[in-house]
Specification:
Helix content: 25-40%
Oligomer: single chain
CATH architecture of one domain: 3-Layer(aba) Sandwich
Distance between the termini: 45 Å
Bound molecules: ligand GNU
Strand content: 15-25%
Structural class: alpha/beta
CATH class of one domain: Alpha Beta
């Protein structure tokens, strides 16, 4: 069967770039939306032109021109949206709802992957304010997809290594601490850390797979299911240097939410659910779910001790 044609929306972004590369590597005719809103963002444009040089097709469109989105969608079989939601000024929700409308009108899409790639928002009905906005928005997009009967796969990719492993789960930094590391509680809550390239590989594997149709695909490669303490120990082993460990109780952590600004409050909420409540690993995958490393055992995913070497 011919390889499905893939359109990536958000192709210049952190995970979007990796998904384009994985799509090209897997032999899919790969299309990338070039939004006219890019304007003078020379970085984004040059990234798009480099993908054209690697064999991707650029499709011009605008989120202010519904017809252009419909025309773009009509050229492909699968649409993957990777537009980030953590940068609140991005109007991510409105843009994704416009994309859903275009996919609904085009009528030809065999699989749509909305911009998920993190915590499963369906598990987060009791999430703390204001961080819950991240999950509520994703659920709004899901409801629009399902109301339009658009075939979908939701990717719950858990923790990007770049946001959570490299910094040993510390906030407000992307680099490992040099002398002391803050530990959430006693650091024994399990989280799941992913090499971002593996997130892209698993995502592309899932788009033509009947067993992920209208399912959530959870990325839980067993060797990357680690407590914060295990992560810190891997880093100490790599550097040969012990870190001073300072434990923060759940109460003290939560009390920080009060005085913080909005963006900080959102992040604190996310970290609380991940590292105190264990929201990534405190539930079993049900019949509406599948686990990527079991479905695709041929993927030799990067273990975290390998991933951490770039920070040495
Ligand atoms: C956390 C962040 C890291 C923010 C998810 C401020 C949604 C998810 C694991 O909001 O994108 O220090 O799944 O000081 O579904 C933010 C996002 C990252 C936190 C990462 C998040 C994870 C949101 C910070 C910080 C590293």
């Amino acid at each position: 069967m011919a390889k499905s044609r893939v359109l990536v929306v958000g192709g210049t972004g952190y995970i979007g770039k990796r998904i384009i590369n994985a799509s090209l590597a897997e032999g899919h005719p790969t299309y990338v939306l070039r939004r006219s809103e890019i304007g003078l963002d020379i970085d984004k444009l040059q990234i798009l032109l480099s993908f054209k040089q690697k064999g991707a097709r650029l499709v011009d469109g605008s989120f202010f021109d519904h017809r252009s989105l419909v025309d773009a969608v009509k050229q492909v079989d699968v649409v993957i949206c990777t537009m980030s939601g953590v940068h609140f000024r991005s109007h991510n929700l409105l843009m994704q709802l416009k994309l859903v409308e275009a996919i609904k009108e085009a009528g030809n899409i065999k699989r749509f992957l909305p911009s998920e790639f993190g915590v499963d928002p369906a598990q987060m009905e009791r999430a703390l304010e204001p961080g819950r906005v991240t999950f509520d928005e994703k659920m709004t997009v899901r409801k629009a997809i399902e109301a339009a009967n658009i075939p979908y796969t939701y990717i719950s990719a858990n923790c990007f290594g770049g946001y959570f492993a490299g910094n040993l789960c510390q906030m407000r930094t992307l680099l490992p601490p040099k002398d002391k590391v803050y530990i959430y509680g006693d650091g024994n809550v399990k989280a799941i850390y992913m090499d971002e390239d593996d997130v892209a590989t698993y995502t592309i594997k899932s788009i033509d797979d009947p067993s992920t149709l209208n399912k959530t695909l959870y990325l839980r490669p067993p060797e990357n299911i680690l407590t914060q303490m295990q992560l810190v120990e891997k880093w100490e082993k790599l550097t040969g240097k012990m870190l001073e460990k300072i434990s923060i109780s759940a109460e003290d952590f939560l009390s920080k939410i009060k005085g913080a600004d909005f963006v900080e409050q959102v992040a604190l909420g996310h970290f609380y659910h991940i590292f105190y409540e264990g929201c990534l690993t405190n539930f079993e995958i049900g019949e509406n779910g599948a686990e990527a490393s079991e479905l695709y055992p041929e993927v030799r995913y990067t273990r975290i001790q390998e991933y951490l070497k770039r920070y040495l």
